[in-house]
Amino acid sequence: MGQVDLVSHTKLPPGLGSAVRKALELLLEELGHGDKSLTLILTDDAEIRALKQEHWGEDAPTDVLSFPAYEPGDPFIPPHLGDIVISLETARRQANQLGHSLQNEVKVLAAHSLWHLLGHDHQREDEWAGFRRVQARILEL
Hints:
alpha/beta; 46% helix; 4-stranded mixed sheet; globular; 5 helices
């Protein structure tokens, strides 16, 4: 099964980290990448805002950032896919707006970011199908 290393830079609600980590590991396995690993970093708006500013030049918080360990399209996918960074502050606001739990929101964001780490993007509407599929599936795991 895929290995997800969890790093917390903020206080986590009980059970959140382990539930998201387990679901991500199962999703990695289902997607045929059970031999891969990634790092999931749960943080706050200040840290994710600083990362977005540093790497994308945008001075605003966001919900999730993906940092792939390779260039999508490379013939070799390394054992470590990369890093997923999620702001729990933004995720909590979004969960409240959408009327579901913080845990479900973090799972959806993690699945979305994993799909990016696997080389997918959503520049066109037809590219969203894969994102929607993995985001729905992780909630079942």
